[in-house]
């Protein structure tokens, strides 16, 4: 009995090997299908495209790509931009804003903004570039302003006995450092930057909404509005939900009857899958010393 060969582990190893092969082949097939996928939904009858901007705006690449793709598609007669976002980075908000203007000018297609629960700050910035804006009465919007958040860890470092050593070339190279108190001169420099970016926001809203800069400036103190209040201030055109926005887009696009709606294909991404599974439940923190301008609601 002691000399009998141990064979119980062999079937298990074969089963594990088979499962790994099946998993590997499945992943390869999914990637292959994504590479060869044709946009069959863009063929055929006239339709309305639906592009969603959801969550904090950190990157513009996907939204810009979707806008350009639908802008170039002959079967897409109008685009609805569904915004449910408190805003985000200044630059990605501006990139989406500019892409909307380019699609409207190049392709002569109507783009309608449909506001969800929140479409504020950077979310409103991109809406201002569209042809028409629809909001629900209870939508939170507005927040026309810019914010920069910095931390000062100097007191904490002293308590734990850590000293910061900085070597720099340029007097203001470490402006916004979390390791020391900010000087009044540095505060004035940063405030000048903030004021310029704020003015860019005001000018974009004034242009997009056909309002006077002075009138927008009165509203651009960072305050939030409901959709109904925003309509009174001419920041939105109509009150309505997503279906209302789709119907309006179809009318402006010359589509008769019930419009067919197309949304972008969300391509499979192993990286996104892993991040959502492994990091989805974890909070993400910004390095306290990073200087970043944000069109973002601070709540």
Q: Beta-strand level of the residues, as a percent range?
A: 15-25%
Can you summarize the main beta sheet? 8 strands, mixed
Kindly state the number of beta strands: 10
Query: What's the tally of helices?
Result: 10
- Average pLDDT: 84
CATH architecture designation: Alpha-Beta Complex
Radius of gyration based on Cα positions: 26 Å
Order of helices and strands: HEHEEHEHEEHHHEHEHEHE
State the end-to-end CA separation: 71 Å
Give the % helix.
40-55%
How many domain units? 1
CATH-derived topology: 2-enoyl-CoA Hydratase, Chain A, domain 1
Basic shape: flat
**So what's the CATH class?**
Alpha Beta
Low-confidence stretches: 275-291
Structural class: alpha/beta
CATH H level, superfamily name: 2-enoyl-CoA Hydratase, Chain A, domain 1
Describe the protein in words:
With 299 residues, the chain is of the alpha/beta class. It has one domain (42-271, 288-296): Alpha-Beta Complex (2-enoyl-CoA Hydratase, Chain A, domain 1). It is built from ten helices and ten strands. The protein has helices at 9-36, 61-72, 90-107, 122-127, 154-160, 184-209, 213-219, 227-232, 242-252, 270-278; strands at 47-54, 76-85, 87-89, 110-120, 132-135, 140-142, 224-226, 238-239, 260-262, 294-296. Strands 1, 2, 4, 5, 6, 7, 8 and 9 form an eight-stranded mixed beta sheet that branches. The chain has a two-stranded antiparallel sheet with strand order 3-10. Helix 4 (122-127) links the parallel strand 4 and strand 5. The relative contact order is 0.17.
């Amino acid at each position: 009995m002691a000399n009998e060969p141990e064979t119980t582990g062999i079937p298990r190893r074969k089963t594990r090997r088979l499962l790994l092969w099946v998993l590997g082949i499945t992943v390869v097939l999914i990637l292959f299908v994504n590479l060869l996928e044709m946009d069959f939904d863009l063929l055929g009858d006239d339709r309305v495209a639906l592009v969603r901007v959801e969550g904090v705006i950190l990157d513009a690449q996907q939204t810009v790509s979707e806008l350009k793709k639908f802008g170039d598609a002959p079967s897409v007669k109008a685009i609805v931009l569904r915004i449910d976002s408190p805003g985000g980075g200044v630059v990605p908000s501006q990139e989406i804003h500019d892409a909307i203007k380019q699609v409207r000018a190049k392709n002569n297609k109507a783009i309608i903004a449909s506001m969800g629960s929140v479409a504020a700050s950077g979310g409103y910035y991109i809406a201002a570039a569209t042809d028409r804006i629809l909001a629900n009465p209870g939508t939170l919007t507005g927040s026309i302003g810019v914010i920069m958040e910095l931390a000062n860890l100097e007191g904490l470092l002293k308590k734990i006995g850590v000293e910061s050593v900085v070597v720099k070339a340029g007097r203001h190279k470490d402006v916004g450092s979390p390791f020391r108190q900010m000087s009044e001169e540095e505060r004035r420099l940063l405030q000048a930057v903030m004021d310029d970016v704020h003015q860019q926001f005001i000018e974009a809203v004034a242009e997009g909404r056909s309002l006077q800069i002075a009138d927008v400036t009165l509203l651009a103190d960072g305050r939030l509005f409901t959709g109904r209040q925003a309509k009174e201030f001419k920041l939105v055109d109509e009150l309505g939900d997503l279906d209302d926005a789709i119907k309006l887009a179809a009318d402006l696009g010359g589509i008769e009857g019930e419009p067919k709606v197309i949304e972008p294909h969300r391509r499979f991404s192993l990286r996104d899958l892993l991040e959502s599974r492994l990091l989805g439940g974890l909070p993400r923190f910004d390095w306290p010393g990073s200087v970043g301008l944000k069109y973002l609601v601070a709540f």
